[in-house]
C-alpha cells in the first residue's frame, strides 16, 4: 500500500515538473504577455449612435442682406438735408429782416392805438367802411378806384377811433386843424341840423 502511494506521488511530481518545463508562460526565459488595455470609446462613434433624446436645435444665424435701394435712399436723404441747410442759411437774413419789420410795425401800432378808444366794435366799422370804399370805386376810373379805399379808411378811423387817429396824425405831421376830424364832422352836422330846424320852424 505504501509502495502504491509512493508511485502516485512520484507520478504527480513528474507531471507537474513536465508542465512547468514545457509551458511557455511559466518558463523563466519566455517573455511575459503584453497586458491588454481597454481602449476608450471614440467620440465620433459615440456621436454617430442614435440617442433617445432629440438633438438640440441649432441657433438661427441672421445674415444681413443689403437692399439695392439702400444706397440710393441714403444718397437722396443726404442731398435733401444739404439742400435744406443751404436754403436755411440763405434765407436767414431775409427772415431776420422780416422779423425786424414785424417788430417795428407792432411797436408802431401799439404806440398809435389809444386806450381811450373802444376797438370793439369801432375797428370793425373801420374795416367795413374800407371795404365799402373798394366796392364804390370798383367801376370808377383807375385813380379813383385806387384812392377811395384809403380815403374811406382814414375818414372812418378819424371818426370811429378819434384818439388813435389824432396820435397817428401827430406822428405823420398832419396840421392841427385836421387832427380832429370827428369834431369837425360833428360841428358841421350840428350846423346842418340847426339850419334844417330853422327852415322847418321847429324849435
TrEMBL record:
Keyword check for Transcription: no
Signal peptide (UniProt feature, chain positions): none
Protein's GO biological process: cristae formation
Subcellular localization: Mitochondrion inner membrane
PANTHER family the record matches: MICOS SUBUNIT MIC26
Summary of the function given for this chain in its UniProt record: Component of the MICOS complex, a large protein complex of the mitochondrial inner membrane that plays crucial roles in the maintenance of crista junctions, inner membrane architecture, and formation of contact sites to the outer membrane.
Name of the protein: MICOS complex subunit
Amino acid at each position: 500500500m505504501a509502495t502504491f502511494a509512493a508511485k502516485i506521488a512520484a507520478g504527480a511530481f513528474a507531471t507537474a515538473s513536465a508542465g512547468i518545463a514545457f509551458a511557455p508562460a511559466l518558463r523563466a526565459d519566455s517573455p511575459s504577455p503584453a497586458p491588454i488595455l481597454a481602449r476608450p470609446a471614440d467620440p465620433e462613434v459615440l456621436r454617430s449612435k442614435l440617442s433617445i433624446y432629440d438633438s438640440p436645435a441649432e441657433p438661427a444665424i441672421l445674415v444681413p442682406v443689403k437692399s439695392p435701394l439702400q444706397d440710393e435712399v441714403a444718397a437722396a436723404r443726404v442731398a435733401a438735408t444739404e439742400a435744406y441747410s443751404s436754403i436755411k442759411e440763405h434765407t436767414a437774413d431775409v427772415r431776420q429782416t422780416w422779423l425786424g419789420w414785424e417788430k417795428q410795425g407792432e411797436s408802431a401800432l401799439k404806440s398809435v392805438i389809444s386806450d381811450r378808444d373802444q376797438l370793439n366794435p369801432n375797428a370793425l366799422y373801420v374795416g367795413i367802411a374800407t371795404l365799402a370804399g373798394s366796392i364804390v370805386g370798383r367801376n370808377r376810373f383807375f385813380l379813383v378806384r385806387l384812392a377811395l379805399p384809403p380815403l374811406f379808411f382814414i375818414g372812418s378811423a378819424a371818426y370811429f377811433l378819434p384818439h388813435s387817429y389824432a396820435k397817428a396824425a401827430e406822428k405823420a405831421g398832419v396840421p392841427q386843424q385836421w387832427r380832429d376830424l370827428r369834431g369837425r364832422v360833428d360841428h358841421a352836422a350840428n350846423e346842418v341840423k340847426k339850419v334844417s330846424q330853422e327852415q322847418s320852424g321847429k324849435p
